[in-house]
Amino acid sequence: MTRIGFRLALAYRGDIIMTCVSLVAQVFLLRMIWTSVYGSRPAAAGLTLDALLAYLTLANLQSFATQTLVSRTIHHRIRTGTVFFDLARPVGYLRQMAAFQVGNTLGGLLLLAPVVPVVLLVGSITVPVNGPGYVITLVLGYVIAVQLALLISLIGFWLMETGAIHLLYRLVSQFFAGTMVPLAFFPGFLGALAEILPFQYTGYVPAAVYVGHISDVSGPVTVELAWIAGLWCLLALTWSRACRRVVIQGG
Amino acid sequence: MIRVEGLTKVFRRPRTFSGPFGALRTLVTRQYEERTAVDDLSFEIGEGEVIGYLGPNGAGKSTTIKILTGILTPTSGTVEVNGLVPWSDRSANARNVGVVFGQRSQLWWDLPLIESLRLVGSLYDVPAARFETSLRKLRDLLGLDDFLDTPVRQLSLGQRMRGDLAAAVLYEPPLLYLDEPTVGLDVLAKEAVREFIVETNRAGRTTVILTTHDLADVEALCKRIILIDRGKVIFDGAIDALVDKPRRLVVTLESQPEDVRGVRRDADGRYVFDIHGDLPGMIASIAAEHPIRDLSIEEPDLESVIKGIYTR
């Protein structure tokens, strides 16, 4: 299944190339906007312009790299009834789908690799302040992102039409991951909300570790592990309920 | 191989409302409507049999197959497939079963056929050596070589079906469910599918449950059929027993008497005789009394019998 996900990423390379283009464009635009917002001010909310740009670039890069095709795939397979075959396999459904996503991400990374230097250059990013910490928080954040995507996808077993939910989820998760505006700029209650939600671990937290805004990773890593464990239970529970709900389209 | 007893599946879904705000009411309703898809079904299937599992659209055929594969849990009743209860021993049961749906494919649309076959190999833990032997055999049997590296979306329906058949038997399951495997295929492709089923059944003693609306498939492949309608078994036995009717002689005469040897003229001016024993003698004795203009012999066929049952 990992292999299928990987091959599909390569099969849809047209998509990925467009993604690369839009990634570069987005980073470039963000740079222009924030540069003009900052004007001659040295720092805002404790972030210098350089740190801010580095942070936003990274957050976007991560968010593109950890995009999940799996929810789209699950949605499609439920609608067309091909989910039947996934369910008839001796391997658990969620395991298959997670493997699919991992393969897909690896394939996506391979295609994303050429633009990484460009993006880093545009975002004027230097070497990470805390390399190992960055990798750990990012990988754990990725696990959370996949779990969340799977969880959202399972709604498809209750509602046949989930396109709008996916769109909403994408919007909310991107926003609260801090890929548009750094979480440090969020006002009071919005900031508190972002603090509570898990999305920051897919964007803000690893990027902040990279630029050195967060120096001690033990706190975030603990919370990430707790999220992973919690989501794991939630997924298992939701899945066992979804199993009972299975109604396959047609036939 | 398969033992089904008192199998019942009732689907429960929220009542749908029509009219203004109907969709909203459907969403929040606590009222449910129940539909019995399979109703107290019982049958047994032995190892190596090829069974025609027939019934009109919506009779409960696919529901039965979904229960037998362990995807649906029945409301009541017991099922044993190769000694396992499909829905509680799901993973073990899955290894025993291959499935082909004519109407949908398990192949990955955007990837070359071989990728889907490799996926099946890895999901069912087929060791590399066995995978290669199995694949080589299937390549010969189904002529896969021409399109093994072609993305599935570019395959013709016949090629796709052959790919699906290969994916279903790659791990050599002792049981094969085929749901309309010849739907939409041309004569040659249908023939290829039938030959494949015969070969798989013969070589590996594979038990086959075949659901189809093409009764020529059934006549070519199955000795026994199970006929269901509205979730109930209405016939279970040899095809011969179902079509156990005499052949009929249909005669048009030069003259049109009211009756000939006790057979009345039908609306088209023909006389229809049941044939018992000596056919030439029968024709000769009719011809001796009345000059014959035309005659034909009607074989009882499965299609007319089943049509008769469906419309009953």
Q: How would you characterize the overall build of this protein?
A:
The complex is a heterodimer of chains A (251) and B (312). Chain A is mainly alpha-helical and 251 residues long. Chain A has one domain (2-245). Chain A is built from 12 helices and 2 strands, in the order ααββαααααααααα. Chain B is 35% helix and 28% strand. Chain B has a 6-stranded mixed β-sheet, sandwiched between helices. A 3-stranded antiparallel β-sheet of chain B has the order 2-1-4, covered by helices on one side. In chain B, a hairpin with a 2-residue loop joins strand 11 (259-260) and strand 12. The relative contact order of chain B is 0.13. The mean pLDDT of chain B is 86. Classes of the chains: A mainly alpha (251), B alpha/beta (312).
Please describe the structure with a list of short key phrases separated by commas or semicolons:
heterodimer, A: 251 residues, mainly alpha, two-stranded antiparallel sheet, 12 helices, globular, B: 312 residues, alpha/beta, Rossmann fold, 2 domains, six-stranded mixed beta sheet, three-stranded antiparallel beta sheet, 11 helices
